[in-house]
Amino acid sequence: MDKLIITAAICGAEATRSDNPNLPLTADELAVAAREAEDAGAAIIHLHVRDERGEPSQDRRYFDAAFAAIAAAGVRAIVQPSTGGAAGMSADERVQPVDANPEMASLDCGTLNFGDTIFVNDLPLMREFAVRMRERGVIPELECFEPGHIANALRLRDEGLLPDHLHFNIVLGVPGALPANPDNLLFMVGRLPAGASWTATGIGRHQTTIALLSIASGGHVRVGFEDSVYYARGVLADSNGQQVARIARIAHEYGRPLATPDDARNLLCIPKRSAA
Ligand code: KMH
Ligand code: ZN
Fold this sequence. Notes:
There is one protein chain. The chain has helices spanning 27-40, 60-72, 91-94, 123-136, 147-158, 182-190, 207-217, 240-254, 261-267, and strands at residues 6-9, 44-47, 49-50, 56-57, 78-81, 104-108, 112-114, 117-119, 139-144, 167-172, 197-202, 220-223, 230-232, 235-236. With 276 residues, the protein is α/β, with parallel strands linked by helices. The strands form four sheets. An eight-stranded parallel β-sheet has the order 5-2-1-12-11-10-9-6, sandwiched between helices. Strands 3-4 form a two-stranded antiparallel ribbon. Helix 1 (27-40) links the parallel strand 1 and strand 2 (44-47). The longest helix is centred in the last third of the chain and has 15 residues, at 240-254. The radius of gyration is 17 Å and the shape is globular. The model has no long low-confidence stretch (mean pLDDT 98). It binds (5S)-5-amino-3-OXO-hexanoic acid (KMH) and zinc ion.
């Protein structure tokens, strides 16, 4: 098996300080969270940003401030901004962080029920985002919440809009979408094309179970406050780093070494960039 890439989704768009007072929101707080996550073993930081009121935003200004603070904190991990933003945002709003030329960005591969709302990702939106990423050399992480999303991603591949190496994130357990359980994870993994790499994300109380399955199945793992603000049943997490550290310990006991940020770049075929 390849070394294990841990992604820390440190903020998300939905969690609030009432859910967990330790949720990082400002650029400086995101930088501290990214630093702690990397120190605990994360190689990728999946990034959402918030405005001054703590509301989700896709505005370049907030991303630029967060990118700068994270770089100033000496973080070497791949910073992967979200192009999902929050349900209800327009495509133009969502795609903004791609113009900052990050190494990676998320690319959501289909529409789904997202709690009480609908998270819209139709094929024209997906194509537009994929083209924008391709033009800028941004590697997409293909977010798949439902089986049809994998078929959508393969359609984009067949249209020549994706890089040669495909990296998926299988997200299970969003209320309204495919539930998080072993059968569904293995079913989704079985639909992936040969040679693709994949991360698994379990939402809420499924976070650790899905991580364990992924570690043992050759996948990679995402944890973080975006997916669960808890550390254990009824126990809020102290930090994103705490959640990452548990995965690192489990991987160590299992005998699967962790990928450094540069290992992750190699595994995901992210082109080397000169230091900017
Ligand atoms: N906040 C969700 C509606 C992504 O980052 O690409 C979408 C999301 C996916 O978080
Ligand atoms: Zn996200």
